[in-house]
């Protein structure tokens, strides 16, 4: 699917992912995590990725690895925003007290924790992030 | 996202239903901070009908907790299993008072 850089597109992304999950009988718990990861990454791109106010395209590919067990969901997100490697993002201090806890910085951390595998490359002026989650059983 | 509001034994119970993400977290923030600005000191967020929350929503809860950390109390109730997992990962389970039911949360704030 191709999304515009507008937060209202999150709903369409979510609906498309739900359909995909149903078609491939992805267990609810794993699908929840993929929803969270896609949501956080796309939100991050739309909110912080662009230096202009122009319309941009975010291209998302969803796939499930072939019949071989265990199956694996793969989400590829490609955007033409400023270079951003989520793997370089500093993790938040998740043990800090309420008073000391920084507001923000959680999204990318959640992505890294709920997905099994992340791969980032900068390719022809675009960020390409591949996120994978292995399905149990 | 749908919000419901009730007052029980002196605490405001805000029901957050459906999905909270970056598109509507601002609405939740306005509502929660509005209650705090209006002088409410005891706030229960009832998550029984909450199906999904992203970091945008977690951020609002943290802001509310910070605001209520002096002279107020915040409790969360009835988180489903998956949302509880997100709380655990984010380290929120240790900084929030979380109760199995709305009634437990209201009772805890007495």
Task: Describe the model.
The complex is a heterodimer of chains A (137) and B (110). Chain A contains three helices and five strands. Chain A has 137 residues and is α+β, with helices and mostly antiparallel strands. Chain A has a single domain (2-134), classed as Histidine kinase-like ATPase, C-terminal domain (Heat Shock Protein 90). In chain A, strands 1-2-3-5-4 form a five-stranded antiparallel beta sheet, covered by helices on one side. In chain A, β2 and β3 form a beta hairpin. The relative contact order of chain A is 0.21. In chain B, strands 1, 2, 3, 4, 5 and 6 form a six-stranded mixed beta sheet that branches. Chain B contains four helices and six strands, in the order ββαββαβαβα. Chain B has one domain: STAS domain (Transcription Regulator spoIIAA, 2-Layer Sandwich). Chain B is globular and about 30 Å long. With 110 residues, chain B is of the alpha/beta class. In chain B, a hairpin with a 2-residue loop joins β1 (2-8) and β2. The longest helix of chain B is centred in the middle third of the chain and has 14 residues, at 55-68. The termini of chain B are far apart. The A-B interface holds A 7-8, 10-11, 14, 28-29, 32, 35-36, 39-40, 43, 46-47, 94-99, 101, 103-104, 106-107, 109-110, 113-114 and B 19, 21-23, 52, 54-56, 58-59, 62-63, 65-66, 69, 82, 86, 89-91, 94-95.
């Amino acid at each position: 699917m191709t999304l515009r850089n507008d937060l209202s597109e999150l709903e369409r992304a979510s609906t498309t992912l739900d359909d995909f999950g149903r078609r491939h009988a992805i267990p609810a718990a794993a699908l929840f995590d993929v929803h969270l990861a896609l949501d956080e990454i796309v939100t991050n791109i739309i909110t912080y990725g662009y230096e202009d106010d122009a319309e941009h395209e975010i291209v998302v590919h969803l796939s499930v690895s072939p019949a071989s067990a265990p199956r694996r969901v793969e989400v590829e997100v490609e955007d033409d925003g400023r270079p951003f490697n989520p793997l370089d993002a500093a993790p938040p201090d998740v043990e800090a007290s309420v008073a000391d806890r920084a507001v923000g910085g959680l999204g990318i951390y959640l992505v890294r924790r709920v997905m099994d595998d992340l791969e980032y490359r900068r390719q022809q002026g675009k960020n390409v992030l591949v996120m994978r989650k292995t399905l149990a059983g | 996202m749908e919000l419901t509001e009730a007052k029980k034994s002196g605490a405001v119970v805000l029901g957050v239903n459906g999905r909270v993400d970056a598109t509507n977290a601002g609405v939740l923030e306005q509502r929660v901070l509005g209650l705090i600005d209006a002088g409410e000191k005891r706030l229960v967020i009832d998550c029984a009908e909450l199906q999904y929350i992203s970091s945008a929503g977690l951020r609002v809860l943290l802001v509310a907790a910070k605001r209520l950390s002096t002279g107020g109390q915040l409790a969360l109730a009835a988180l489903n299993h998956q949302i509880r997992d997100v709380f655990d990962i984010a380290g929120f389970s240790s900084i929030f008072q979380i109760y199995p039911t709305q009634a437990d949360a209201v009772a805890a704030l007495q």
